[in-house]
Amino acid sequence: MKKVNLLIFIVLLLSNQRILYSQTKSLLKKYKIYKIEEWSVIDKNNPELKNTEVYDENGKIIEKITYGKNKKPKKREEYKYDSTNLLIEHLIYNDKNIITKHEILRYNNNKQKIEKIELNQSGKIISKTIYEYDENTGFLITKKIYDEKNNLEKVISYKYFEK
């Protein structure tokens, strides 16, 4: 079967507006979309590329590039997934291709995020977030944030109210 790769150009006619890509994964898979570009047109003779998003065969974003006014990438993001399609790593690079943010995520057997570790450019931990869930409902009940020395910085609690 011949694969057809589609490229969508999204043109913005009004300045200072952004499109949030709300296409569902199923639509991306159905139409075999692998890349979306966002363009801004203020001067019809000089369109500007704002963002490019690249997707895998499951409709998961794997790369996002944000462009500056000089038409060169100013930020690049990479997304990595495990065999069950859960995001396990998120990297952000600056315009010099240096990592500015690196997150590693872990999940429990219920596919709930239980840990997020943020690393600096040299791979040292700069923060860690632990997520705790109610055993009965599965709702997030506590988020604990630790600093680079594993000192507890903040506890965020969640309460749920029924009507």
Describe this protein's structure.
The chain is mainly beta and 163 residues long. It folds into two domains: 89 residues, no CATH class; 66 residues. 4% of the residues lie in helices and 53% in strands. The chain has one helix and eleven strands, in the order βαββββββββββ. An eleven-stranded mixed beta sheet has the order 1-2-3-4-5-6-7-8-9-10-11. The longest helix has 6 residues. The radius of gyration is 19 Å and the shape is globular. The relative contact order is 0.09. The N terminus is likely disordered.
Ranges where pLDDT stays below 50 over 5 or more residues in a row are: 1-22
Category by helix and strand content: mainly beta
Mean pLDDT: 85
Evaluate the radius of gyration: 19 Å
What proportion of the residues is helical, as a percent range?
under 10%
Q: Name the helix and strand elements from N-terminus to C-terminus, one letter apiece.
A: EHEEEEEEEEEE
Tell me the count of domains. Answer: 2
What is the tally of beta strands?
11
Q: What's the story with the biggest beta sheet? A: 11 strands, mixed
Instruction: Count up the helices.
Output: 1
Any descriptors?
1 helix; eleven-stranded mixed β-sheet; single chain; 11 strands; mainly beta; 163 residues
Give me a quick take on this structure:
Helices cover 4% and strands 53% of the residues. It has 163 residues and is mainly beta.
